[in-house]
Write a structure and sequence with these properties.
This protein is α/β, with parallel strands linked by helices. The protein has one domain. It is 32% helix and 10% strand. The chain is built from six helices and four strands; from the N terminus they run βααβααβαβα. It has a four-stranded parallel sheet with strand order 2-1-3-4, with helices on one face. β3, α5 and β4 form a beta-alpha-beta unit. The longest helix is centred in the last third of the chain and has 12 residues. The chain starts with 12 loop residues before the first strand and ends with a helix. Bound molecules: magnesium ion. The site of magnesium ion has 6 residues, from loops. The site of magnesium ion (MG) has 6 residues, from loops. This is Secreted protein.
Amino acid sequence: MEPLEPPPPPLPLLYLDVDGPLIPFGGPAGRQPEHLTERRIREVLGAEAAGHPLLVRIDPRHGARIAALPCRPVWATTWEHEANICVAPLLGLPPLPVLEEGDGEDAPYGVHWKTPLLVGHADGTAFAWVDDEIGAADRQWVADHHPGPTLLLRVDPQVGLTEQDFAVLEEWLRGPV
Ligand SMILES: [Mg+2]
């Protein structure tokens, strides 16, 4: 009898920020395209959760794109569990695990509060991180503290996730990570 194949490694984690990548902000005169109507938001979320004025900027097509990626998405956002109440349903995504602020060590000066948290959460496994606030100090911190493969993808907060961003994610996630 052939020896059993070892189980495949788990899919890479994908840490997802909300403000910036999924809810763009800033830009000329602060104007952003709106993809959802207030009415649609109320239909999906119910009246209580629908009050956030920026939810209209969520592009529901992003949900299918994220769901099609070979990864395990995790919210890494100040929205924390609210992301599962207000954002995931509008994207057509199931509730996702949430990276909670205050779970891990404090970030050193210049390093984003999320950086040590998600490195601790990933625990050496491959991960991608999509955020508009990734900087050089974060890249260095991850390089110094995380032995596994990583993709730190900075998104332009005025634009949000683009086709180009999804292409980069696809290629990295489907490559030999
Ligand atoms: Mg952000």
